[in-house]
Amino acid sequence: MANNPAKPTSNNSEYSANQIQVLEGLEPVRKRPGMYIGSTDLIGLHEALREIIDNSVDEALAGFAKNLWIFLNPDGSATIADDGRGIPVDVVKAYNQSALELVMTKLHAGGKFGGSAYKVSGGLHGVGASVVNALSKWVWVEVSRDNKLYRQEYAVGKPTTKVEVVKESKLDIPIPRKTGNTTTFFPDNSIFPNIEFDFDIVKKQIRERAYLVPKLYIHFIDRRKEEIKEVNYYFEGGIKSLVEKINENKDPLHKVIYINKSVDDVQLEVALQYNNSYSENVESYVNVINTVNGGTHLTGFRMALTRAVNDYGKKIGSFKQEDEGVIGDDTREGLTAVVFLKMSQDNVQFEGQTKGKLGNSEIQPIANQIVREGLSTYFEENPSDAKRILEKVYLAAKARMAAKAAKEAVIRKGALEGSTLPGKLADCQEKDPSVSELYLVEGDSAGGSAKQGRDRKFQAILPLRGKILNTERARLDKMIEHEEIKALIIALGTGIGDMINMDKIRYHRVIIMTDADVDGEHIETLILTFFYRHLPEVIKQGYLYVAMPPLFKIAKGKETRWAYTEDEREIYIKELKTLSSNANISIQRYKGLGEMNPEQLWETTMNPKNRMLKKVSINDAEEADEVFTMLMGDEVPPRKSFIQTNAINATLDL
After folding, report:
1. pLDDT band at 630 (very low <50, low <70, confident <90, very high)
2. Most buried among 218, 253, 381, 458, using CB within 10 Å?
3. Which tens digit of pLDDT belongs to each residue from 603-622?
4. Is 515 a catalytic residue?
5. Cα–Cα distances in Å, from 349 out to 102, 117, 271, 352, 361?
6. Is 442 a catalytic residue?
7. 484 occurs within a structural domain
8. Of these residues, 519, 559, 595, 635, which one is catalytic?
């Protein structure tokens, strides 16, 4: 019997002109919001706010705005205002519409496409204002211009009023200015699951921009609660001030080196300073956009830094001509830098709508040339600073070679080979990393209970004896010599240093489980320091967790409750009292994991059905870096100041 091709039996399988949709106006934005703001989660919500903020920042970059105001309003809306020129309100003849209405209701309409209004801006596609309008329940925009106040209102991207002259502003806070824009929008909760702006996220966004645009005064006022919060930013020094801030507690080796030069339509600003730490902290920006994944401007900077250091070292005789010199890794040790590129908006090429990486190939040689010439001049004019930098880089090179030799010696012995797991590791039977867990347990006693109480199929246990090495300032060779750290590296399977391979990680849940006392918290901090400084990808990929053992066992007869906080303890006591007012209630405070038997440890802290885990994340890398440096570094005064300032907030367990 012949096989006949299947024939469609339903209209659902047809594909014809009838299935082609044309989305008019701003409908594509509401249909696919992720294409325009990356996502509709909390990050996307703040991306919408950033789009409007950056319109005002662009006015400052163009030299017209001196002030930027951001208000979080009691009704949940946000207001952004500036004292720039104000969006034009006159009619664009080709569309017979006001320029303001076009900017707010048409994609790719604005002053950033080939005109002279903006040579540099943070917006890539000119879709910022219209996209935010499309994703808002309502928006109103006011323009102060020509001694008049104009206003237009919108709902889900469509005008509900004409552009008209009004007598007074809808904003109930007076703004001292003669010209400028005011935009107020209320996010659409049918698009965004969470429409509540986060004060700290907004604060970080505007602080970043205040550093990038010197002499811009930014006023941020949160009016949502009775107690109003206000933050103001103003930096004379621009990115130099940012580098000084990052290096605040890190023992800088010299004053900030600042390079600022233009080539054709490209302007590059670089500020850099070495400190006494071993970690690198380099940030890069293009037209106030934080290029978190770097790009050609950052590559050019790094190439130039390595070449300039090598050239100067050989010139003054620090490096012999036949030496291999220093490599890029050596020049990054203890380096803090900000690379800020400004270029014509017509030419900039980002990779993706979220603009995380610059793709313009022509920028790499330009950045290389500017930085190399700038550093060479600085080294010649500041020989004492240059000498300190060379000493720092040369020590890094020596340490790298020593660490390499130590690592090769260890590898030859097989100590870091994945096949030679540490004897103290009680591994799990499961070989699939995605379902395997590794518990890092404080002490042999708790480790013993954990080994007995665990589910051997997918849970591995690695007991860590005592307080492990503080790796904040430890080099690779010292870490490999430390037995507890070495055991952890081997158990994870990722390798360390330049041999890290996250594809070889053996567990997708690495869980820190320590006692709920001061020593336990110290050990937890030491382990966190190791991961943050030496295996940050474990954190970034969401593999690191902290276990939350219960603080109290509340029992009444055969009824037992486990309380993880003091508030829970009080709630459970009240609940148990309602069962019977005669029986006594016993309360046991757990200070150590060893106080629980294997069954209790499984029930409260290791059973996936009952346990509480906190996922470790790096929401603000700069702030995290500052805290780790302050808590785990060598400088005592900042740590003392932190303890004195926060002691009042400490909970004493007497």
Report:
1. low
2. 218
3. 889 999 988 898 888 765 55
4. yes
5. 25, 20, 23, 9, 9
6. yes
7. yes
8. 519
Looking at 146, 280, 391, 517, which residue is catalytic?
517
Mark whether 227 and 245 lie in a shared domain: no
Is the residue at 326 inside a domain?
A: yes
Q: Is the same domain home to 300 and 373?
A: yes
Residue partners of 440: CB distance under 8 A and separation at least 6? 462, 464, 488, 510, 511, 512, 513, 527
- Assigned token pair, 330: 């050596």
What's the pLDDT band for 386 if we cut at 50, 70, 90? very high
Instruction: Say how many domains are in the chain.
Output: 3
Q: Of 442, 603, 625, 626, which is the active-site residue? A: 442
- Give the closest residue to 36 by CA, choosing from 167, 115, 111, 134: 134
Asked if 519 is an active-site residue, the reply is yes
Looking at the fold, whether 254 and 135 belong to one and the same domain comes out as: no
Non-local CB neighbours of 227 within 8 Å, separated by 6+ positions: none
Same domain, 437 and 386: no
DSSP code, position 546? E
- pTM, whole model, 2 decimals? 0.67
What mean pLDDT, rounded, does the chain reach?
Answer: 84
pLDDT in tens, 180-236: 999 999 999 999 999 999 999 999 899 989 999 999 999 999 999 999 999 999 998
Percent helix / strand / coil, the chain, rounded to 5: 40, 20, 40
Beta bridge partner(s), residue 444: none
Domain hosting 477: range is 433-549+615-644
